[in-house]
Amino acid sequence: MSTEAHAVAPAHDEHQTSTGLDNVKMAMWAFLGSECLFFGSLISTYLLYRNRFGSGPAPHEIYDIPYTSVSSFVLLMSSLTMVLALNAQQRGILRAARVWLLATAFLGMTFIGGQIYEFTTFYHEGLALSKSPFGSAFFVLTGFHGAHVTVGILMLLSLVGMSLAGRLPQSDSRKVELIGLYWHFVDIVWIVIFTVVYLIPTNN
Amino acid sequence: MGAFALAASACSSNVGPQDYMSPEGPVSRRADQLWDITFMLAAIIFVIVEGLIVFALIKFRHKPGRQAAQFHGNTKLEVVLTLVPALILAGLAIPTVKAIADLSQKPNNALEVKVVGHQFWWEYEYSDLDVITANEMHVPINQPVYLTLEGVDVIHSFWIPKLTGKQDVVPGRVNHMWFTAEKPGEYWGQCTEYCGLSHANMRLRVIAMAPDDFQTWISEQQQPASSPSDSLALQGEKVFMEGPCINCHAVEGSDAAARIGPDLTHFASRGTFAGAIFDNNAETLTTWLDDPPAVKPGSKMPDYDLSQEDIQALVAYLQSLE
Amino acid sequence: MATAAISQRRLFARPTSTTGWKSWLFTVDHKKIGILYGATAFIFFILGGLEAVAMRTQLARPDQTLFGSAEQTADLYNQFMTMHGVTMIFLVVMPMGVALFNFFVPLMIGARDVAFPRLNALSYWIFAFGGIFLYSSFFLGGAPDGGWFGYAPLSTTQASNGMSYYSVGLQILGVASLLGAINFIVTILNMRAPGMTMMRMPVFIWMTLVVSFLLLFAMPVIAVALFQLMFDRLFDTNFFNPAAGGDPVLWQHLFWLFGHPEVYILILPAMGIVSEIIPVFSRKPLFGYAAIVFAGAAIGFMGWGVWAHHMFAVGLGPVANSAFAISTMFIAVPTGVKIFNWLGTMWGGDIRFKTPMLFAIGFVMMFIIGGLSGVTHSIVPHDAQQTDTYYIVAHFHYVLFGGALFGIMAGLYYWWPKVFGHMLSEKLGKLHFWLWFIGFNVTFAPFHIVGLQGMPRRIYTYPKGMGWDVWNLVETIGAFIIVSSVLVFIANIIVSSRKREEAVDDPWDARTLEWSIPSPPPEYNFAEVPVVTHRDDWWHRKYVESPEGFPVPVLAGGSKGEENLGDGHGIHLPSPSFFPLVVAAGLPVMGYGVIYFNPLVLGLGALITMMGVFGWIFEPGAADEH
User: What is the number of CB-based contacts under 8 A between chain B and chain C?
Assistant: First the structure.
């Protein structure tokens, strides 16, 4: 067991840092700061183009707010299960941690499934990626968010796999915390997207 | 050395046709006045700062026995050296903002011309006067010319250095600019936004004329094309009307009415063609028609493998379009 | 369980060699990575320089067609023009800065490595593969030809695959920059030696930190723009397609929102280097340390508020133009502060004109010219004349060549003894400097003149009779003088490494911690982690101040060189790793898959990268832990 624990926890991380903050956590925060500008640019593009739908379907013609509200709620709930997973992991209740991690991944998958369904519906209603600037901006913004959720799901499932293989002991709960940070960030971005894209009315 | 270069240029007697250090209209002159102030300030700062550096390098160069004084700063001096440049710049900002505001006003009583940028030539439409021409814009002197700029393919930028600074021609947007010419003559310019293979070959001329001459020019341009009289030109007209030419070109008063390439109704009245890069004569026209992209890279007019006979006929026809 | 663990270890055993080619391929040592960065960037510097020379030769006389027919000449010229810009910015100046960050950030803050050594290796390999990927386009149907600024809709409609390589290639390079930025932010904030407070850090470290934050926030913006460009080209989206209602000006906003901070990403490292060199060779502390640090940070902030000064001719309207004119004027203030502080540092000093100092002085003098011409761009009505002429080209070459490259050269001469353990020839170094300085001015000073005479940028030819002929010929001659100076530099590298005049630990009698350890530094950098008590700590261990304010050497020995004691035994260093190379290798493969719409190639690239990531995660912490 000790060899394995060592294998995943490089020794140099144990040093005291100048700020007292953990290196990896600081790196994750920096990365998320960068992601803010990434989504900021995509959202700005969407705001510029949301009224440029040409002859194609307009936003208000295709958005199904109740439907998207439900899937948004699902994604929000996954933040709750993520918190529970980290809590269980930190307290050493590894089995519970795995269950909550799985639940988080499952909620994420539900959200992605909903998004795939939504994309398909929109496509059938005539909104394609190449239909109008609005179509391009919509699919690329929400698509990149979906890709982020998908990466998050893969990381959550990897955590579950590692935990099952006994490679994610209580002492290593920082990994869960890091992926949790990422997961919460992606959820928050969705709240912004949901508000900006779906809730703010467009010109008719 | 850079300042020397600038100074050399500022008083250079070697004035080229696109030299904007010698403006010839109110818009370019207004810009030039700002430049004069800015350049003078920059030159003074340049001399002082570079002079101080050279002085320090000489005075404080290593000599045996020299000791370096270990001081870390001088807050008072640093504050002054921050505030002084800030004040100079604030002083510069005032005339700049005023000039921006003034030049953005639409002039009264202006001649309006629509400019469309194409890869790689310019189209001018005098909408009120029902005249369309290419590359060479005729304007009356002492009357402001108000341009409406529209793009159809990629971004270009319209520029007549002696008369006005540039304004981009952006597809999907409508931009405006204006200028006034004060003396009759030819003013040169060219596209200044990189637009592809022949960006270098997208030139233009503004031909300023006395108001009466301008009126004459307009009334000539308003006429439909004259019918050719000699047989070679008539044969050329046939080649033109039956060949691929009419897919892109218009000749007022004939079947040719396409607006993809330049309007050729009064082609022979122009001094240049193909983005104002060739003088308009039989020799250059022959070379051009033989293989356009070979002499103007990326030309949208392809090589049609015309026979020499057809080319000569077309040249005669084009030269009849006065 | 134990057997499984052992087999696991064998499967993922880490490479161990510390010499030979394997030690370079799999290294995670920040010093080796720094050298790799520098060597790779130098190769790209030669390529970008050759492109420049080809362009200058074509422009030497009017109406030339040197690269074949008129069509071939125009086509190749446009490729060279685009790739010269892309190369010098993304493959030379940025990675040269990163090379020096890599080698010296840990040494100057008293650390044994960067925070994430494997991530560091990954950054390098992604950068190297990204550069090769971009250059492969020359052999695969034509290099990018839409300008380094890639203005849509030209960039979305150019027929060759060049601009697809541009969009994908810059994405790949962007990943490298982003990872590097995160690594340096964490390293600088978290890995400082005891006592190395923020306000004791060398200015070079401060500038690295500012640059890293600029990269962190600028890279995602250009990433989005490049994605949109790529999607427009490959999937028919309408981001920049005016026919469908897209707005080409969006590209310009995104590009310059990245592009202007990028300018400071390029120049701040050089400012940091010069801020190290001038005090050393003036034998004085930096004048106004705090002011220089705050000016650097202020430039970092203000750099986000000036982007539209690249777009004064776009037609944004008088209000926007006025606002950006004013912000552009005022960003000159912190820049001026730095100039005055360097002057103040030399004032009253004991100036020694060694080669690094010559380049540093050259930097200050040339940068002043670039800075002043920069201010002239802010007077919008006249910028409408200057923009897109050679006057602008003159300006940014005075900033990027006269600034960034002079600074980098100063840094190379200054730190060469520390990196390679031997001195560079002063004689050849001075010859290099003077040829470089003269060649630079002969080439680029006339750019101002032809620019003011109305010669536009990005033209592959020009007619006779414009008044530009003489100066263009002069510029081309200047370009060949620069070539000769680079040849002298290469000769210097070769001759000096043959003759090998061994460098002592501290050949310049310098001020910062990297000079307290042997040249070249041992793998573990510091046998004992230093405890810092002063700004310019190393100087203060060597000198005290006399009552008159002059430096007095501490009696022989003093506390000098305590880090050199010990043989570093038992110091725990990260082991080399295969996986950064593997992860990075997948990216260009994916790039080809995207450009050529080949899902098989795309999948292969993704597979390589994923295998690399998997191996990375399960790699044991070190090779030989018993």
Answer: 321
| Residue from B58, B63, B166 to probe the interface with C (highest C Cβ count within 10 Å) | B166
Mind listing the pLDDT tens digit for each residue in C569-587? 667 788 899 999 999 999 9
A11·C618 Cβ contact <8 A: no
Dihedral angle, C-alpha A175, A180, A182, A185, nearest 10 °: -160
Contact call for B92 and C329, based on CB within 8 A? yes
- The answer to whether residue B321 scores a pLDDT higher than 70 is yes
pLDDT (tens digit per residue) in C367-412: 999 999 999 999 999 999 999 999 999 999 999 999 999 999 999 9
Q: pLDDT-based confidence at A12, cuts 50/70/90? A: very low
Give me the residue from B19, B31, B190 closest to C382, CB to CB: B31
SS3 (DSSP) at C393? helix
Asked if C224 lies within 8 A of A45 by C-beta distance, the reply is: yes
Partners of C237 on chain A (C-beta within 8 Å) are 129-130, 135-136, 140
Q: Which of C329, C351, C368 has its CB closest to that of B57? A: C351
C437 with C362: CB under 8 angstroms? yes
Instruction: Take residue C430 and report the two structure tokens written for it.
Output: 């001075």
Task: Provide the shortest C-alpha distance from residue C162 to chain A (in Å).
Answer: 22
Spatial distance between the Cα atoms of A194 and A74, rounded to a whole number of angstroms: 13
B2 Cβ under 8 Å from any chain C Cβ: yes
- Do residues C314 and B168 touch, judged by C-beta distance below 8 A? yes
d(CA C508, CA C510): 5
B284-314 b/e with 16+ CB inside 10 Å = b?
bbeebbebbbebbbbbbbeeeebeeebbbbb
Query: Under DSSP, is residue C343 helix (H, G, I), strand (E, B) or coil?
Result: helix
The model's pTM is: 0.94
Interface test with C, best of A4, A129, A139 (most C CBs within 10 A): A4
CA distance C246 to A120: 24
In this complex, which of A4, A23, A132 lies closest to C245 when CB atoms are compared? A132
Q: What is the ipTM of this complex?
A: 0.94
Q: What is the DSSP string of chain A?
A: -HHHHHHHS-GGGGSPPSSSS-HHHHHHHHHHHHHHHHHHHHHHHHHHHTT--TTS--HHHH--HHHHHHHHHHHHHHHHHHHHHHHHHHTT-HHHHHHHHHHHHHHHHHHHHHHHHHHHHHHHTT--TTT-HHHHHHHHHHHHHHHHHHHHHHHHHHHHHHHHTT---GGGHHHHHHHHHHHHHHHHHHHHHIIIIIISPPP-
For B92-136, what is each residue's pLDDT tens digit?
A: 999 999 999 999 999 999 999 999 999 999 999 999 999 999 999
* % residues pLDDT > 70 (chain B): 96
Residues 6+ apart with CB under 8 A from B249: B256, B258, B260, B261, B262, B263, B264
b/e map C321-348, b = 16+ CB within 10 Å = bbebbbbbbbbbbbbbbbbbbbbbbbbb
